[in-house]
Design brief:
With 311 residues, the chain is mainly alpha-helical. It folds into two domains: 1-91, no CATH class; 94-310, no CATH class. Helices cover 47% and strands 10% of the residues. The protein is built from seven helices and nine strands, in the order E-E-E-E-E-E-H-E-E-H-H-E-H-H-H-H. It has a three-stranded antiparallel beta sheet with strand order 4-3-7, with no helix packed on it. A two-stranded antiparallel ribbon has the order 1-2. Strand 3 and strand 4 (54-57) form a beta hairpin. It is globular, with a radius of gyration of 22 Å. The N and C termini lie far apart (74 Å).
């Protein structure tokens, strides 16, 4: 029988294993024998053998089923090429994660935020923002080219998609360092505590592109909303700066709302940058919904003012 791989460390396990012998992670391998013909009736959390991408495959899936990876789009036999386990709690195609240290109340890997570093963080951020400016220009060109590709083929080309995704990860890692003060890790490398996960869609709607995304970009409605959300994030960071300066710690109660708003900001940005069609414009928490409603009202008022001035 084909072996399966641990969902966490990748060690090969026997088909009947309940827990990984290396890291202890619980696994639920696909049943063989009498149940193999039925396969997995529910949606299954799988991992591509080629690129390592994890995603949710729609059931039912039998031992001989072929599953297509959502990232590299290669087809493989499910039983041989993929492992499956209990699906993660967050199966959204657009995710922004913050990895914390041993003390969950603190962002990043530092147990105490360096007070002296607070005074010079902006100096380290200057070259990062300069790099982000030029990186962003190229990313915008990539999105412009992707617009025409989507219009013709209904797909965001993989190469362009991965390039823009890399830019967004760089952007949000820089934001998290300064001005949001979520980490002291200033280089946006693989060790950074902030990570984005963005699944490449199999297809995108041409109607949404022409009648929703393009007007949104030209009228800057969603763009103004995204800018308003970032202003709120910046205003949250101002008292946080003083709290860290006095206590040496990021206030625990402020992490959840900051992360929720940043997550919403990222999801709407991916929609605006043509990378996804689905987006929850009003957020998933009460605080974010209130902030979004205020932003929509503000953007509407500014739009009316600009129209009246033009007339």
């Amino acid at each position: 029988m084909a072996q399966i791989a641990c969902t966490k460390c990748g060690v090969s396990l026997d088909p009947g294993a309940q827990f990984c012998t290396n890291c202890g992670t619980r696994v639920t391998p696909l049943a063989r024998g009498s149940e193999s013909s039925a396969g997995a009736q529910a949606d299954v959390h799988v991992r591509c053998q080629y690129c390592g991408h994890e995603f949710i495959a729609k059931g039912p899936i039998t031992e001989g089923s072929t599953v297509r990876c959502k990232r590299c789009r290669r087809d493989s036999d499910f039983a041989q090429a993929f492992y499956h386990s209990t699906p993660p709690v967050d199966t959204d195609s657009v995710r922004l994660n913050l990895k914390y240290g041993e003390e969950e109340s603190l962002p990043g890997s530092d147990p105490v935020n360096n007070r002296l570093l607070l005074l010079v963080k902006w100096l380290f951020a200057i070259p990062l923002y300069i790099g982000m400016f030029f990186y962003g220009i190229v990313a915008f060109i990539a999105v412009f080219l992707a617009f025409w590709a989507i219009l013709v083929t209904g797909r965001f080309p993989d190469g362009l998609f991965n390039f823009v995704k890399g830019y967004l990860q760089y952007q949000y890692r820089v934001y998290s360092y300064f001005p949001l003060l979520l980490t002291n890790h200033w280089t946006p490398d693989d060790d950074h505590p902030l990570e984005i996960e963005l699944d490449s869609p199999l297809d995108l709607s041409r109607l949404a592109l022409v009648f929703l995304k393009l007007p949104s970009f030209l009228l800057d409605v969603v763009g103004a909303l995204i800018g308003f959300a970032f202003i709120i994030l910046f205003l949250i960071a101002v008292p946080v700066w003083w709290i860290i300066l006095v206590t040496g710690r990021y206030p625990k109660g402020w992490l959840a709302p900051t992360k929720a708003l940043l997550q919403w900001h990222f999801r709407v940005t991916t929609w605006q940058w043509l990378m996804r069609d689905e987006v929850n414009l009003f957020g998933t928490t009460t605080g974010v919904r209130v902030a979004v409603i205020i932003g929509i009202v503000g953007a509407f008022i500014l739009g009316i003012r600009d129209c009246s001035v033009g007339i």
